[in-house]
Amino acid sequence: SLTVAIVGRANVGKSTLFNKLVGRKLALVHDTPGVTRDRREAPATLGPLTFTVIDTAGIEAGGKDSLELRMAAQSYAAVADADVCLFVFDAREGIVTADQIVAQYLRKAGKPVVLVANKCEARFSSASEAWSLGFGEPLQISAEHNIGFADILEALMPFAEQADADDKAAEDEANKPLRLAIVGRPNVGKSSLFNLLLGSERALTGPEAGITRDAIAAHWQAEGRDILLHDTAGLRKKARVAGHTLEEMSVGSTLDAVRFADCVVVVIDATQPFEKQDLIIADLIEREGRAILFAVNKFDLLENKAGAISKLRDKLDASLPQVAGAPLIATSATTGEGLDRLLPAVLAADRAWNARVPTATLNRFLEDALERHAPPAVSGRRVKIRYMTQPKSRPPTFALFGNQLDALPDAYIRYLTNGLRDTFHLEGTPLRFLLRSTK
Ligand code: GDP
């Protein structure tokens, strides 16, 4: 759905406009610049259009250097969240430096902007000046006197249509089958698990309706989701020569399976857990950016089952911190143990991989994380993180904006990674960071 941010310097009438659009007095309106400090967000209606409107804190003049004007982090976040910005200025006062600074920021942010001249109840004389902001001719409105709202509606309409189209595309994406692969060293029980999984799904769905197989994939439905399971030759009945399988662990076929997949189950042998090859495979999956979980198979062979998983947890988190917290499911292809937990865990990892954290929520998290533990100064360079967004998912990718971010230590990224995982339940997916320094 459409999200609209109201942006502009202090006291141009942003809150009044917000209140009119929302129809309730949510924002505190006051005649002192800078009174509306916090971001407010509410459902709004304008004729046939419903959308989310975000009111932002204005920019405020910074102490001694009047040109160094700061925009609150919430304003950045609001712009990042919005499909379109209503950039409001005060028509009675004309264009002032602070408006130019907002304009400069908005041009950099790259979001569509609708320029709005507010307080136009009497006459509008700053029309030519307004062009200098670079956003064309302003709509002339008076929020307080209910003038010009039809023009706002007309201006927002195309963006609403675009937002609807985007929603539909996202929905189509979510309805695509979940592509799953099962990988691991030879003899850990991949084909046994694979066949058992297909067998149990066949039992659930019936012999006919259920599963289709072709050369590369088996296809069925689980919990309302289409599952497409990569069916490598290695998972099929294998030629056995004198009791040995001919399959070697081939990096090539593992890579093929990983690249095919959204989500990868790494089967490991509970009696020989996390050998070097297991870690190489897991690392490959992480680098390819796929959702990942582990089936700790042959669990029936363990004599000491109690505490085994939590020991493995520690080992995994220490040897592969990039996938810390990835689900570990104890399974046995012999007894069937744990098989019922495998698909739900796959679906959960896939949800984490697809997760989108709204910008406002993300910046509340960031504020808290920074307060607990600020980034250290590195050889005298002051690193400053101003705000963050999540530009994409699959896997979740976060953009950090600030100054001197190239000096941000890896340990700090790990600190943020762990925090994000805990707070937003992102276990079972790699996370990515993009560093966007402005100086
Ligand atoms: P793959 O090479 O990874 O596909 O492994 P297979 O599925 O061919 O299994 C290798 C051997 O381990 C076979 O002899 C299986 O019967 C045995 N096996 C597989 N899963 C289990 C299990 O959970 N428990 C026990 N005890 N044996 C298993």
Please outline the helices and strands.
Layout: E1 3-7, H1 14-22, E2 40-46, E3 49-55, E4 59-61, E5 69-71, H2 73-81, E6 84-90, H3 97-109, E7 113-118, H4 127-131, E8 139-140, H5 149-174, E9 178-184, H6 190-205, E10 212-213, E11 217-222, E12 225-230, E13 240-241, E14 244-245, H7 251-260, E15 263-269, H8 276-288, E16 291-297, H9 308-319, E17 328-330, H10 339-354, H11 359-372, E18 384-392, E19 397-403, H12 410-424, E20 432-437
Parallel strand pairs: 1-3, 1-6, 6-7, 7-8, 9-12, 9-15, 15-16, 16-17, 19-20
Antiparallel strand pairs: 2-3, 4-5, 10-11, 11-12, 13-14, 18-19
Helix pairs in contact: 7-8
The protein binds guanosine-5'-diphosphate (GDP).
Guanosine-5'-diphosphate binds at residues 184, 186-192, 245, 297-298, 300-301, 332-334.
According to DSSP, the number of beta strands is 20
CATH architecture of the largest domain: 3-Layer(aba) Sandwich
Q: Level of helix content? A: 25-40%
Which sheet architecture does the biggest sheet show?
A: 7 strands, mixed
CATH class of the largest domain: Alpha Beta
Low-confidence stretches: 27-37, 59-71, 237-249
Helical segment tally? 12
Q: What small molecules are bound in this structure? A: guanosine-5'-diphosphate
Protein name: GTPase Der
InterPro entries: G_ENGA, GTP-bd, GTPase_Der, KH_dom-like, KH_dom-like_a/b, P-loop_NTPase, Small_GTP-bd
Keywords: GTP-binding, Nucleotide-binding, Repeat, Ribosome biogenesis
Subunit structure: Associates with the 50S ribosomal subunit.
